[in-house]
Design goal:
The structure holds 2 protein chains of 2 kinds. Chain A contains 7 helices and 10 strands. Chain A is an alpha/beta fold. Chain B folds into 2 domains: about 180 residues, no CATH class; about 130 residues, no CATH class. In chain B, a hairpin with a 2-residue loop joins strand 7 and strand 8. The chains are: A alpha/beta, B alpha+beta. The complex binds adenosine-5'-diphosphate (ADP) and magnesium ion. Adenosine-5'-diphosphate binds next to strand 1, strand 2 and helix 1 of chain A.
């Protein structure tokens, strides 16, 4: 379960301060499929980064699975990310020199998994996104949609409870984007995964069960 | 992440940019290679010097005029005074020598070279253990009646008679004075002044009167006096006696400095040893500087690499890499570069030593195992030292900032 309590995130740029998140409180239960929607610069990515433990809020508390993670040290946050959270980015963010398999293996390696277990779980993850026959391919040898699937496999491989996707279809054509969205829904339904999807596009947000709209760092509406 | 995986990742990113990696390694390769090669050469030179000195014998004292006093000279009168067994009982042999550089030419062909010519007593050959490959040394009678005969070193023989003619019995011109070659000395190798192979030996009386007459100017001046002692362990006493005799002979009053130098082979050995040690240290330092420059090159490229791969670092952190993991990843990369370069450098250094040894038979580079270990160890240390800062920078990157980096 995700619980943001009065989260504020302030960026200082010289003399100016930007309140990217302004006293935001939000609760997302396990197994929800949520979209965070808002215009560019509204604070969506900042919110996702806080939820994903990539960034610490300036003030407020963040409870993840019943634990206050807003004051954890960097390495502890790395462990939380590794075990509990999977990330999918707009630009895929795969390691271009490594094969699909090695990309997917990486979070497990960071988590201390090795040997046959490492291999099997990674291949299974690739299988679950329909890329069993692309294990040895490097990102440049895959289409955009396939690359995003590899990224999703990498996000899933540690079996996290939470999947965070920041504009996951932003770099894909609409047809491929639809496929990726269907994959998210499938993962959500089959595995009971909590999926938080960040987008500026209402057509994409409609695929989810709950839409949280933000503007200027504040929650404007929250519709299930 | 286990170590093999870390190394594999390092190799992956290093091979992604092969030319750059190679150029980065070049500094360390040159550094390690030159340290190894230069130290081998230094050791070869030292061994050569030491070997030659021990072959001369350690119970030998040499007296020479003080080099920085223009009027200083030694004469046959000094030789006579030192030869007095009552004055210098420790001496078993006292030999004068006249020495200089002259043009030596074959009479039957056009070959010639400027080389070291010395006038000696026959006993000189015994004292210096110079063996004849062909013919004989000159005799006391030759010295007495001033026969124009010469013993030549093997290198002189091949220079004058390159086509394999027998040098023995030939007439050579030493500074335009004709001499008959009666002996060719066994080659001893080595290099430098006064080397047997490059020397022409003639009876001392002939040298004084015909070859270096102008220099002696009727004073019976000699270039050096060799004194052999009956034991190797009374140098200091003997040296003091020699000084007393010569100061008396030269009418030096107390307080006036010596116009001659007395030194023994042990001193020469230790001086040369110091020189060659200093040389070795100097050469090592040059290689060390090259290594250091190589290290800075590694740091430079690693910093560029960290900047270029900011996004990659962000991704790795996002999916759970800890600071230490990132630190180790980049440190391993720096270490792989420097270690690999170190190994290549070792190979090149050993290869270069071998090549020099083949090309230059006098110089026998001796590859030093300690030099190998030190040079390689140094290159690894360089990798750690200069890799640490870039790796630390990488490990400190904030994941969000790193992911935003274009
Ligand atoms: N690192 C940063 N430094 C300064 N300002 C930032 C930084 N990150 C985000 N911002 C600002 O915070 C606001 C929200 O940014 P962001 O969360 O990226 O918006 P969105 O993802 O909705 O487009 C924007 O005004 C942006 O300029
Ligand atoms: Mg954004």
């Amino acid at each position: 379960m995700i619980e943001l309590k009065n989260i504020t995130k302030v960026y200082k740029m010289g003399n100016e301060t930007v309140r990217a998140l302004d006293d935001v409180s939000l609760k997302i239960n396990d197994g929800e499929f949520v979209a965070i929607i808002g215009p560019s610069g509204s604070g969506k990515s900042t919110m996702m980064n806080v939820i994903g433990c990539l960034d610490k809020p300036t003030s407020g508390e963040y409870w993840l699975n019943g634990k206050d993670v807003s004051r954890l040290r960097d390495d502890q946050l790395a462990t939380v990310r590794n075990r509990n959270i999977g990330f999918v980015f707009q630009m895929f963010n795969l390691l271009n020199r490594s094969s699909a398999l090695r990309n997917v293996e990486l979070p497990l390696r960071y988590g201390g998994v090795h040997g046959h277990d490492l291999y099997k779980r990674s291949v299974d993850a690739l299988d679950s996104v329909g890329l069993k026959d692309r294990v040895r391919h490097r990102p440049v040898e895959l289409s955009g949609g396939q690359q995003q699937r590899v990224a999703i496999a990498r996000a899933l491989v540690t079996q996290p409870s939470l999947l965070l996707a920041d504009e996951p279809t932003g770099a894909l054509d609409s047809h491929t984007g639809e496929e990726i969205l269907r994959l998210f829904r499938q993962l959500h339904e089959e595995r009971g995964l909590t999926v938080v999807l960040v987008t500026h596009d209402m057509n994409i947000a409609r695929h989810t069960n709950r839409i949280v709209a933000i503007k200027d760092g504040r929650i404007e509406s929250d519709v299930s | 992440m286990n170590i093999f995986e870390t190394i594999r990742t390092a190799l992956e990113s290093l091979t992604a940019n092969k030319l750059r990696t190679l150029l980065t390694m070049l500094g360390v390769i040159i550094g390690v290679g030159s340290v190894v090669a230069l130290l081998s050469i230094g050791a070869g030179v030292t061994a050569n010097i030491t070997g030659r000195i021990s072959s001369i014998g350690s119970n030998l004292i040499t007296v020479s005029p003080m080099f920085n006093q223009p009027g200083a000279r030694l004469t046959m009168a000094d030789v006579a005074a030192l030869s007095n067994p009552l004055a210098l009982p420790e001496a078993t042999m006292v030999l004068p020598e006249v020495r200089g550089n002259l043009l030596v030419a074959a009479a039957t062909n056009t070959n010639n070279e400027s080389t070291s010519v010395s006038g000696e007593e026959p006993a000189f050959f015994t004292m210096r253990a110079i063996q004849m490959a062909e013919g004989n040394i000159f005799t006391a009678n030759d010295v007495l009646v001033q026969t124009h005969v010469a013993v030549i070193g093997s290198a002189v023989a091949t220079t004058l008679y390159p086509n394999g003619e027998n040098a023995l019995g030939q007439t050579i011109l030493v500074g335009s004075v004709p001499f008959k070659v009666i002996g060719v000395a066994v080659s001893v190798g080595g290099f430098g002044p006064n080397n047997t192979d490059d020397n022409v030996y003639v009876p001392i009386t002939v040298a004084m009167n015909k070859l270096f007459a102008g220099r002696a100017a009727g004073l019976n001046a000699v270039s050096d006096i060799y004194i052999q002692l009956d034991q190797a362990n009374d140098f200091t006493a003997a040296q003091n006696d020699i000084q007393t005799i010569l100061r008396q002979n030269h009418h030096l009053v107390p307080g006036q400095p010596n116009d001659f130098r007395v030194f023994n082979q042990a001193q020469i050995a230790s001086t040369l040893d110091q020189v060659s040690q200093a040389l070795t240290e100097f050469l090592g330092a040059i290689g060390g500087i090259a290594l250091l420059v190589g290290g800075i090159g590694i740091m430079n490229i690693m910093l560029v690499s960290v900047t270029e791969r900011t996004r990659e670092i962000g991704v790795r952190k996002a999916i759970g890499a800890k600071r230490f993991t990132i630190l180790m990843q980049f440190l391993t990369e720096a270490l792989t570069v420097s270690g690999l370069a170190g190994l290549i450098g070792l190979g090149l250094g050993v290869g270069a030593s071998d090549l020099i040894g083949r090309a230059q038979s006098n110089l026998k580079p001796a590859v030093q195992p300690t030099a190998l270990i030190v040079a390689f160890g140094f290159s690894v240390i360089i990798g750690v030292v200069f890799g640490l800062y870039p790796a630390w920078r990488a490990s400190r990157l904030e994941p969000v900032e790193a992911l935003r980096y274009e």
